[in-house]
Amino acid sequence: AIANATITVRNIETGAERTVTSDESGVYRIPLLPLGSYRVTVESANFKKLIREGITLTTGQTATVDLNLEPGGVTETVTVTSDAPVADPGKIDVGRVMTTREVENLPLISRNPYNYALLQANVTGRPNAEFGVPRINANGYARRTNYQLDGNSNTQADRPGIRLMPISETFVSEVQLVTNGFSAEFGNTPGLIMNAVTPSGTNGIHGSASYRFRRTPFYARPFQYSSPTDLPTNNVDNLTFAVGGPIIKDRWHYYGGYEYIKRDLAVEPTRLVTITASQQAQLIAAGVPSSAFVAAIPVSQKANFYIFRTDAQLNEANRLTGRFNYFDNNSPNNIGGGLNTLQRSIDFIDKSYSLGLQLASTLSNQIFNEFRFQYAKRDSRNLPNANSGAGPSISITGIAQFGSPENANTILPLETTTQFQDNLTWTRGDHAVKFGGGLNRIGDERVSGVFARYTFSSIANYLLAKNGTNPRSYTTYIEAFGDPEIKYKSTFYNFFAQDDWKVTRKLKFNYGLRYDLYDVPDANPSAPFSFSQNFKIDKNNFAPRLGIVYGLRDGNRPTVIRASAGFYYDTPPLDMYLRALQNSGSPKFFNFSFNGNNNIPTNTPSANAPAFPTTLGALPAGSVLPVQSIDTIAPDFDTLYAIHTNFQLEQALTDNLSFTVGYIHSGGRHIPVYRNINRINPTGTLADGRPVFSNTNNATTRFDPRFNNILVVESVGTSKYDAATFQLSKRFSKGYQFSVNYTLSKATDDAPEQNLVATQVGNSVSSDPTNRALDRGPSLADQRHTFIMSFVGRPQFNFESKALRYIFNNNQFGIITTANSGERFNIVSTADLNLDGISGSDRPVGFTRNSGKTPKQFNVDLRYSRFVNFNERFKLEVFGEFVNLFNINSVFQFNNLAVQTDPLTGNLVGTLPDFRTRSIPTSLDSRQFQLGFKFIF
Q1: Domains in the chain, please, with CATH?
Q2: Residue 117: in which H helix or E strand, if any?
Q3: DSSP strands (E only) in 457-536
């Protein structure tokens, strides 16, 4: 150990320099360095000057770089080229950083970098084919992901699993993926942290321009189509441009980027229309325009991405980074297929932007500060278009839906976030103490759809109403009344303190405490039910963390042991509070239903039931609201948290190759679960003892007879997750890099959750309000086996023949391979077995929750590139990309999960059907090919 040595680090790309002095123990720390490649220079009296090159810093990395000086004169220089050890003795968390090489060269036809989250061990799910969110599960928790952009929040606050703003691969430099063991500085999820890092400019002017395209003949017939005829158009045109460089060399740099994409989405499985040809013919004869009927809804997407970033070294002590991102998307006809006609079409308009600032300051040789600010906004709306029908919405049960769309002129959501964060680091001896705090102010606005819907049981009854023979031949008429707009605000606070303690050269502790305070929306003090008059703010969210890393063996093939444990809190889904405010029992916006006569002479329509196609506009005088069902939140509701523990052993096999084996355990507490508390005094039981309630509403059958159902969300769910992970990782050397991982896991819980994005949970509530153990079963996130491989290779051959060198060199391959167990689903009864008024939530007797499982999933994506080098500065890349190269049909969802049961006993009638054949399942994409050209300078 050499005290008082002068250590200077210089960023090779930007010229930025920092100088520090080692302490009396020879220890040095240089926090808050920008990403990139570095040269380290060490000088000390009576020792030769040391220059170490080839050190690369990635996002979130604590690089341990030992500097060994040789005795001699200061005029003598020793130069060493090597990176930090591949088995990093400074790393504690479970995760990886995807490098720029991977981000730019792995196959990504979707153009959605969030799909890269699925390349991390301990993560299950499936990708998204466009700019929506992938279905991500981590640590056994469905959809719990903390999306970040340059360390700032990019997570939509209403439901778990939604990013606030889409991002373009064009403005992503690295992707940091962390699932477990992160320090007290980070929180707001028991699952995955995904941090996308934007590029910065350098001292050289560098950039690229590209064009990608896909045409209908480039893809295989989608699996849900039974005939090769009438396949939907599937064209894509994609342009990108990016450039970065210096404004003042070594001091001030810029980066700008743009991406435009126009693509057809009718090929997606959910867009297929299932109305039969004979039914179409009858409806056309009934007056529905023939143009309303298509084989698949012609959804398309036209999106623009913009980024501008600047990095300025204001002076020796302060570096300022500013970034502005903008995104807009116009998606015409953005509806699902099924029974929909084109008349139900709406345009989805989505705009978002983010302004981020970071000031990194060196206050002294030992004190460093980082301040971050962000203002971000997302505004997404559904608007009617030229295809939208007029008049009331019309639904003919099991046949077709046409007329006016029911979700036009809605806002979902308009969300703003204003974020401040300040972190201070103090280094002293073997300790690096860091503490900080911040807040995230969230504003949310929603506008629900105002609609009027006539439902008919047959085309014949529709014709009777249309021609005036029986204007009330419908089964029901529903119209929305009142004020559809709602606004609310929340503030999320965080505070933390942690110490990174280098106990010895081989042993390091990281311990700390995090505190989160989630100031949820204000309740309605005049709500008729007491639970909805005040929402609890949980003030007990203390999260201790402890991590240990030990270098078991030094040398060229180090062995590193890591272990960590801690509490990890989740942000409360604000959709719970939205529902409690909207459905409080004194609704300002509600649906009112009128019965028709269904063309049955003995049926009497409801009072004030309109004659088809009349819409009311206001609730008729004398109409009495039916007994309301309400959503509310338990007065003792607490924040979900997880207790994580993990153990990892990493062995360096070569200078650039390592193998890691690990074990992860997570126990979830306070998972939100909805329970119907209003049904009391059962009138009977099913065969497994579940209570059966009365449909009569009175003081004997209802806890509060003012209401029908009272769905209260309680923080009572628990979960258990155990996983073994195996990872083989090679960083780039000798022309290639790869990451291979396999996860064997088991996830169980007793929490039938709602408010999750993109799941089939439906109206999931506790099966038995008096026995929560009945819901213990596999989690929605339970996928036992997950295998993932990513590879980027650009081999170089030194043939004597110039022709052979030309043929075999300048080729590059990017590969992603996945093999997973099937996804879980819940088998439910067609009947409301317990008569609690909630359909689609009761399981047949003898069936465990989420006992269904889809088939196994396999996929190989490939990107091949050929480079044409004009000179050292300019080159052209010609590339082709495949999704699902071998065209394997990987089913991830069955669309009819209800089975026939005995309404008295709850037992299954007959045998369990084959879910693969009873309806058209939903699969991952069939094979698709994309061709592109990229000019690089």
Answers
A1: 6-81 (2.60.40.1120)
A2: none
A3: 476-482, 485-502, 507-519
Give strand pairing partners of 777: 749
What 3-state class would DSSP assign to 116? helix
Per the listing, tokens 């970071």 go with: 358
**Segment (H or E) for 582:** helix 574-582
pLDDT score for 60: 83
CA 769 to CA 228: how far, in whole Å?
Answer: 50
- Residue 438's alpha-carbon distances to 141, 156, 371, 378, 493, in angstroms, are 26, 18, 10, 21, 6
Mean pLDDT throughout 797-824?
95
Q: How far apart are CA 567 and CA 670, in angstroms?
A: 13
Residues forming a β-bridge with 790: 739, 816
Strands 857-869 and 559-569: unpaired
CA distance 842 to 907: 11
Q: Provide the whole-model pTM.
A: 0.94
Residues 35 and 98: beta-carbon distance below 8 Å = no
Give the residue from 552, 556, 538, 543 showing the smallest Cα distance to 514.
Answer: 543
HSE at residue 577, side-chain half, CA atoms within 13 A, is: 27
C-alpha span between 728 and 661 (Å, rounded): 9
Res 763: pLDDT: 65
8 Å CB contact between 77 and 41: no
1 contacts 25 by C-beta, under 8 angstroms = yes
* Amino acid present at 629: S
CA distance linking residue 313 with residue 167, whole number of Å: 27
Distance CA 612, CA 467 (A): 10
| Three-class DSSP category at 460 | helix
Structure tokens at 750: 């007793």
Tell me the C-alpha to C-alpha distance, in Å, between residue 857 and each of 20, 178, 689, 724, 904: 52, 24, 37, 20, 38
The residue-averaged pLDDT of 845-854 equals 95
Asked if 515 contacts 449 with a C-beta cutoff of 8 angstroms, the reply is no
How far apart CA 320 and CA 641 sit, in angstroms, is 35
| CA pseudo-torsion sign 845, 848, 852, 856 | negative
Where residue 228 falls among pLDDT bands split at 50, 70, 90? low
Q: Report yes or no: 923 and 891 within 8 Å, Cβ to Cβ.
A: yes
Q: What is the mean pLDDT of residues 439-445?
A: 98
Q: How many Å apart are CA 694 and CA 328, to the nearest integer? A: 51
- Give the span between the Cα atoms of 824 and 892, in whole angstroms: 9
Q: How confident is the model at residue 83 (pLDDT cuts 50, 70, 90)?
A: confident
Q: In what order do the strands lie in the sheet with 135-138?
A: 123-126, 135-138, 141-142
Residue 780 DSSP SS3: coil
Q: Please give the single-letter amino acid code of residue 24.
A: E
Distance CA 14, CA 319 (A): 12
Count Cβ atoms below 10 Å from residue 210 Cβ, excluding itself. 18
> Is residue 762 within 8 Å of 829, Cβ to Cβ?
no
- pLDDT tens digits for range 333-379: 999 999 999 999 999 999 999 999 999 999 998 999 999 999 999 99
Type of residue numbered 64: T
- Could you give phi then psi for residue 461, rounded to 5 degrees? -65, -35
Measured CA to CA, the distance from residue 196 to residue 432 in angstroms comes to 26
User: Roughly how many angstroms between the first and final C-alpha of the chain, as a whole number?
Assistant: 45
H runs (alpha helix) in 357-482? 459-466
DSSP string, 438-459: EEEEEEEEEEPPP-EEEEESSH
Q: How far apart are CA 187 and CA 194, in angstroms?
A: 12
Which tokens sit at 766? 């506790």
List pLDDT tens digits, range 94-142: 999 999 999 999 999 999 999 999 999 999 999 999 999 999 999 999 9
8 A C-beta contact, residue 108 and residue 115: yes
Average pLDDT of the chain, as a whole number: 94
Contact 593, 476 (CB under 8 A): yes
Instruction: Determine which helix (DSSP H) or strand (DSSP E) holds 19, and give its type and residue range.
Output: strand 17-21
